[in-house]
Amino acid sequence: xxxxxxxxxxxxxxxxxxxxxxxxxxxxxxxxxPKAAFLPRLAAVVARQMGQGLEMxxxxxxxxxxxxxxxxxxRGSLSVQDKQAAAAVGQGLLIEGYRRAFSRxxxxxxxxxxxxxxxxxxxxxxxARCTLQLLLQRGIVPVINENDTVSTEEIxxxxxxxLAALVSTLVEADLLVLLTNTNGLHxxxxxxxxxxxxxxxxxxxxxxxxxxxxxxxxxxxVGGMATKVEAARKAARSGIPTVVADGRSPGILxxxxxxxxxxxxxxxxxxxxxxxxxxxxxxxxxxxxxVLDAGACRAVxxxxxxxxxxxxxxxxxxxxxxxxxxxxDPSGRDLARGLTNYGSLDLLRIKGLRSSAIEAVxxxxxxxxxxxxxxxxxx
Length: 379
Ligand code: GLU
What we know:
5-stranded mixed sheet; single chain; 17% strand; Carbamate kinase; 8-stranded mixed sheet
């Protein structure tokens, strides 16, 4: 058994060339300001790994934590505007910290600030991918953060765990490492119960995994373990393993990359989505929701069929043809994501009907399907 687990670990890191490492605020700035020794230590490890042929992309939190201390915002929760102002002040300092730490290792860093919107627009997504490829080819370390200063609720990713997962699909990474202040996922909250056991490997992310993750976040962190599991799930569906590990321990990145038994390894899913479907599933936010009857739920989730108008029982929100929508079962549980061939107004008129009736009702027909199976991803 033990041998099996260690084999799984070693296999997950074998042949890895491109790694995305997310650095959480809880380890970079646990007291609300960057810890002096942290970045030089991280830079030393990252630069050494790059010297051995790895390509490294960093996703770093800490702009808000750094900025708030500087502009004198008290502890406790901040308004959105305060966070945006703190991020504007903190991001410069944060990147300066990275620049200084890496320049001692003769490496350049590049600041890349993204919002969800950048990734939801296919053209900008591909453009960002090109730029990141170029930086990596030149041996420059991209240091990515959410562009908090301009990101409103509708366009933000919201937490850097999910951002790091999206970045992993963007750069087609071989491994995602989330560095945090706990040694991986535990069967219970280790902060609250003494006997909590670390889960070394998660082969399949399911409801049990989510339950173990709970929903707690630290004082300066956004996500906690729940967003890490969400991120790992996105990466898994894209064929990328994730390791969540304790970034306070200096040698951790080396240990993870050697496939040692540290933190929690989340294995890639058995059925992996292709690049375009990853983008549909994770990078675009649904504008509305289509509720399906039981038969359509089965057809879509079990048989991989397209969604036809006859299976639609309710339409929620306003959306246009071509927008992303979520497909839900009658109880409202999201089952799938897809790009719709019909806007919400059209759909209200043709829901429940056979495809052959579409043209007579609307006066035109774009397609027989509301969401074609090629544009549909079961979650
Ligand atoms: N983007 C935020 C920051 O730099 C952090 C978000 C997170 O920690 O998930 O402060």
